[in-house]
Design a protein that fits this description.
six-stranded mixed β-sheet, four-stranded mixed β-sheet, alpha+beta, binds adenosine monophosphate
């Protein structure tokens, strides 16, 4: 069964799946291509989702929930008939409908899904979204960023590496992101916006204007009549949409109200110019965030390769002109702006589902594996002397496999501890340990003889499995660490700041470790020379060599974390002396 991609929006949601190689939007049971993210609890206990819920909002406002996305990750609750619902549970109701509609359309059970979130969502908001998916019975393959999904829908993952701006003006929110498209990775460099600005504000402006005109003509204030004003607002939204393609439109609302003379009908002609004058400041309010996103990304508008339009409100011609004026680029809207995020999520879902089943399943466009996520922080294991030996570098693309052969440091050692860490620092104690296990039953042997193969596998979902295998006995032991056990976003940010702050110190430390390693190599060489050629060596030379070896040993045998700068200096001098004699 196809894996689905879901754009779980503030005002509208959309679901898509890759069928026959292309990401197609799945219409809902009502035949609409997007579903209002609205949930209502009818008086008879029935739960309504989508357009039916939206339609009864005016008459049942206390039991209707909209824009719950703004509450994700908070402890907001709504109480209905003695029961409390969290934002996750309300979102799950929307997701359950999308899932049911997809199942009906695709003709089978759907469980695997990719869900999108705004790039600025924090860990809690992302986890809440994932939980909503789980509550809805979905297996959430991955949570991805909305601008990333848009870039996928536009096929940018297969083109030139470049900087792209995604300008997303939806029903209730405005987000702008600058993303960097690399060879295998799409990275969000900066994001800004206003989560209280969107198409609803344009509707409200136009509705107020229509109501004021009507009041001037008839003396009746429809804005204070909830049901009548709802009709005006719906008509205003319709007119707004029409004005995206026409220069003028007529708003017609028969029997809108009445006065002493009888029923009153509303009929007004609205021109695009009038609409633009009414909403100019709303369009201009997107300027600040656009500039901020560019600033934060550290680029000028001229460095943008492309500008993508996302969200239904970017169909407004004045919005498109404004984006072009701000960026100097003709913005692209070749893909339906209401649908491209869901389509991108569907592409990613198909890829992940394909990757999981061994790559044999669905593979959109070109058959190339699409890899998006990267390791946010290096992985290391602790080696002798408390050193963090890096095995997977930060920013490596997932999935990744790595292996290296290690050996024992002590003679006749029969077990080793594998301590897995995340962090950028050279000393184990400065990084975060995320899992440990013992590999036991190693055959007794001198130090350096046993061969222990340690492998790291991180799959596309970020799940890490570390396996240690004693190549002598075939004994192996492994551990699986999920994303949630790893470092949180905050920890990662703090660790990156730390690593930057200590960069110079750490580089010096690494150089010292390298010297120490070199000293050990030199020692083996010198000992070998003594064993093999010692007999023929003049006594004095032999004595000098032995002394030089002892000099190096004195410092090289110290635990590195205990070594002071003076010890390293002495080691340097001893190494120089030994090298002179060899
Ligand atoms: P979204 O949340 O991305 O689905 O965006 C929905 C918003 O886009 C709503 O405010 C719609 O009124 C608005 N919208 C949809 N189609 C158009 C259009 N043709 N012209 C202007 N706004 C539109």
């Amino acid at each position: 069964m196809a894996a689905i991609g879901i754009d779980l929006g503030t005002t509208n949601s959309c679901v898509a799946a890759v069928e026959g190689g292309s990401p197609d939007v799945i219409p809902n049971a009502e035949g609409e291509r997007t579903t209002p993210s609205v949930v209502a609890f009818a008086r008879d206990g029935e739960r309504l989702v989508g357009s039916v819920a939206l339609r009864q909002k005016a008459t049942n406002p206390g039991r209707t929930v909209s824009s719950v996305k703004r509450r994700m990750g908070t402890d907001w609750r709504i109480g209905v008939d003695g029961k409390e619902f969290s934002p996750q549970e309300i979102s799950a109701m929307v997701l359950r409908k999308l899932r049911a509609d997809a199942e009906k359309h695709l003709g089978g059970e759907v469980t695997d899904a990719v869900i999108t979130v705004p790039a600025y969502f924090n860990d809690m908001q992302r986890n809440a979204t994932k939980d909503a998916g789980t509550i809805a019975g979905l297996n959430v393959l991955r949570i991805i960023n909305e601008p990333t999904a848009a870039a996928l829908a536009f096929g940018l993952d297969h083109g030139d590496p470049q900087m792209v701006m995604v300008y997303d003006l939806g029903g209730g929110t405005f987000d702008v992101s600058v993303i960097e498209i690399g060879d295998d990775v799409i990275e969000v460099l900066a994001t800004a916006g206003n989560n209280r600005l969107g198409g609803d504000d344009f509707d409200e402006r136009l509705a107020r204007h229509i109501a004021e005109t009507f009041q001037r003509e008839t003396g009746v204030d429809v804005a204070s009549d909830q049901v009548a004003f709802l009709r005006v607002r719906e008509a205003a939204e319709q007119a707004k949409k029409e004005l995206s393609s026409m220069e003028s439109t007529v708003v017609n609302l028969p029997f809108l109200s009445q006065n002493a003379q009888g029923p009153l009908h509303l009929e007004q002609t609205i021109t695009r110019t009038q609409f633009e004058n009414l909403t100019r400041d709303l369009v201009e309010a997107t300027t600040g965030p656009v500039q901020q996103a560019l600033n934060d990304a550290g680029i000028a508008a001229s460095e943008l390769g492309r500008v993508l339009l996302v969200g239904g409100s970017t169909r407004i011609p004045a919005v498109q002109r404004h984006v072009e004026a701000l960026t100097g680029k003709h913005p692209e809207s070749s893909i339906n702006p209401d649908e491209c995020v869901a389509q991108g999520a569907a592409i990613q879902a198909a890829t992940l589902a394909g990757a999981r089943s061994g790559g044999g399943a669905l593979m959109p466009r070109g058959g190339e594996l699409l890899l998006l996520d990267v390791v946010p922080m290096s992985f290391a294991i602790e080696t002798v002397g408390g050193v963090a030996t890096r095995v997977i570098e930060r920013n490596t693309t997932l999935p990744v496999h790595y292996e290296q052969v290690f050996t024992t440091a002590g003679a006749f050692q029969t077990k080793v501890e594998i301590n897995i860490m995340q962090g950028e620092r050279p000393m184990a104690s400065d990084n975060k340990s995320i899992g440990k296990f013992w590999l036991k039953g190693i055959k007794r042997a001198p130090a350096g003889v046993p061969q222990i193969n340690v492998s790291f596998d991180i799959d596309a979902n970020g799940i890490l499995t570390v396996t240690a295998k004693d190549l002598g006995t075939g004994n192996e032991q492994s551990i699986t660490i999920t994303d949630s056990e790893r470092m949180s976003d905050e920890e990662i940010q703090a660790a990156i700041r730390d690593a930057e702050a200590y960069a110079a110190e750490d580089a010096a430390r690494r150089a010292q470790f390298a010297k120490r390693e070199e000293a050990h190599k030199l020692l083996s060489e010198a000992e070998e020379r003594l064993r093999e050629g010692g007999k023929d060596m003049p006594k004095d030379d032999k004595r000098a060599l032995k002394a030089a070896i002892a000099g190096v040993q004195r410092y090289a045998s110290k635990r590195p974390e205990k070594m002071t700068d003076a010890d390293f200096e002495n080691l340097d001098a001893a190494v120089d002396e030994l090298r002179r004699l060899l």
